[in-house]
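Re: the 306-residue chain
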Amino acid sequence: MKKILSFAVIITLMLSLLSACSSEEDTSASASDKTLVVGAKNFTEQFVLSKILAIYLKENGFEVEEKNNMASQVVRQALENKQVDLYWEYTGTSLVNYNKLDPLSDSLEAYEKVKEVDKDNGLVWLDQSQLNNTYTLMMREEKAKELGIETISDLAAYLNDGNKLSLGADAEFATRPDGIKGVEKEYGFKFGSSNIKKMDVGLFYQALRDGQVDVATGFSTDSRIKAFNLINLEDDKSFFPAYNAGITVHEKSLEKYPELEELLKPLAEKINTETMTELNYQVDIEEKSETEVARKWLTDNGLIEE
């Protein structure tokens, strides 16, 4: 009888140990299961943003696979097909390019609209940032200060006083209703066709730096703005469409990891247009790696430990 009891005790202990091991394996598998695929488009700003996101997620217990250097339509399709779980997108890009809607200049209105329409696509917009990579009118900082021009309204007033300034713009943007023609109409001024110098996209920055033109069109977070001592004129009537960056997540990924919504809030809260221009500058002009720039930004903002 004692032998039978001893055998029963041994069997019970063995089963308990097996159960404990199984539980530990399940827990371990669950932890290693926290995997996300982060996507990115094919330009510097996206490389930096995706690296910020990837490093931050890794520091918060996720395994991260990075899929970078994709065309805009490709990464969007990858998100819809859940080949990537999340990436940084721009409100205006989603409204106009993907959903074929009219652009909106009010950042909050654009964000609310894109949240609504992309919900039907199975995508969730987390908080939008104050990073607005939209069109801009630029001047050399020294010239703008000399003329007392800080806003597009200041520019309009200067030209309406009978002064002349030359503008560098690509041929399409110079004639589009949401380009220079629209700006002139909204702010009530004209450069005059003889003062508009049409040139290839990307040449405006150097032409402005070298004094070939007085004003130029551009994109608000371009690293050359800082490198060439240029300034963005404030669009004080909010004419240009909103292109605020925000993290888009596939709905099934968010269902699996609902903590992402709160976890990623600080990224949107701390990134803005000025900051992004500086980060782009560090990569494009100072030739630092995206990883180095992203990690330093995260540590400087207290989001991860050094």
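Residues 150 and 287 are 30 Å apart (CA to CA).
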